[in-house]
């Protein structure tokens, strides 16, 4: 099936040229291309059109889950008739196994898996192995982490057809080999239930309950069933049942793995003893022996991924299998925000290696655990077939790979121009900034201010509040949930000014912002290089009155490059508008995105001890004209009562004993799992944070009791 792009819009501006150029490059076999697209120019729509024209299975890589979710939603809308998949880490909470030698502290792996995302991951693998060509996978860098051998996965697919000669018991054994488990109770994902000659299966990769009915040693019928009513929905001639877990292996591979693990265990224990590390030898022997017993009895164990090399049949040092191995050879890779995503991929392996080395050196894991790792950058590059880098400010690497050749997209469908950039002296910059802010407040517009340090951001925020400006700040000490709330409050007008360090760049859709002020713009460095300045300036490009003020006493090379590039784009944009009679039109979104709307339902529940807590519950009353006067922020009228205030901050908690706190943790955990199943990731993350605080409280209570 071909890709069928559905949209009420047609390519405009320089989108048609970009689409034609990129598509031609892919079809002609050009290995790497770069799309430089300004903020708001419709890069996602361009990508969708390229995919439709080249007709290749496509991987779209994003640097975080939130942006990946936004892209997934957009591509689902663009291609409703095609297979659009979502592949990100399925952990709502993940604490990796680690050992800290300096304090002799072992940290056990702790995690909470999001069942819904796990299903989406399995759906991705199933789609890629189905042979379909109309597959788009939107993924985070999770795609470079190890997973099962695609050959083993494919071999354990249970393929059935009506009329097949197979006994019921033989069919059940195949399901078990594919890691489905039997139950007599209510079916859950990845389970099957048997009643006479009827087998009901709740698939792990789709929201489908399958019923297979036998007549003797023959499959009589294959049906999909409504889980609630039990009524038949569809009759099928055949069906492929994909494994219930990405990590699946054949019996032969399992037996071979057990033998090799035993051999390597003996070798490593002998090595430790020769080195005089008796404790490490005994520790390793005990842990690995237990794991082997679990694998023999149940087919898996906690931390089985550390033995993946044995099950995959890989040699020491060989890269792990990953999602990229499941794509056909001619697939297309699109790397979104490549200037951020590529460095992230490049840095993944180093952090993982240092943690694993400690575990191996001190006898917690076999050396094979090191080979359970993310791809190295050169391994990732070797697995990508053809790549399109997409960014408003691509890095040096992307431009080097394309030999300085790129496709440009600077015309916005709305006709909006890049903002004007003005340089003003740093002398009295705060007084000048205050004047500029008040002009925006009178016009009902917002202001972003970037500083060099977190302390400067907080002090400027306090200063603005003192003089009656409703202000907030964002930096690394402000948790993710609070950032989402602050950004939405800025859109809604609760705040007129938002101050940040380097978090006001890619991914912020703020059409209400008409002024971006960059303090100390002439201080060369990461926060004031050409790429950062251009990204920051782009935050004002969604407003018809967009303007950037750089406060500086000299013009650095980075400032000059940013100004020259912005002026070049403005000239091109103005000429296009004049030639086509276009009047710039500003689009104001009433809300940020679906994740923010989800979060709005739980605004009353957020209450952390971060440095941002002092700015959360007070709304500065700038309308009164009295500096420093404030009123308590009232809850939004649509906030539902059932989402209670933060449990961990409840003073009653301090009077609970250990048993009562454990019950409270179970309650929070249940709510977290329920939120995750609804894909309410913001609510689930907030509940996760509450649960972690409750666990900390539980440890303190237990320590107190122990000391008594």
Briefly say what this structure is.
The chain has 708 residues and is of the alpha/beta class. 40% of the residues lie in helices and 17% in strands.
The biggest beta sheet is recorded as:
7 strands, parallel
- Arithmetic mean pLDDT: 83
Q: What is the terminal-to-terminal distance? A: 70 Å
What proportion of the residues is helical, as a percent range? Answer: 25-40%
Low-pLDDT segments? 590-614, 616-652
Count of helical regions? 20
Question: How many runs of DSSP E, i.e. beta strands?
Answer: 27
Q: What share of the residues does DSSP label as strand, in percent? A: 15-25%
Apparent shape: globular
For the largest sheet, list the strands in their spatial order: 3-8-2-17-18-1-19
Which structural category do the helix and sheet elements fall into? alpha/beta
What is the alpha-carbon Rg in Å? Answer: 28 Å
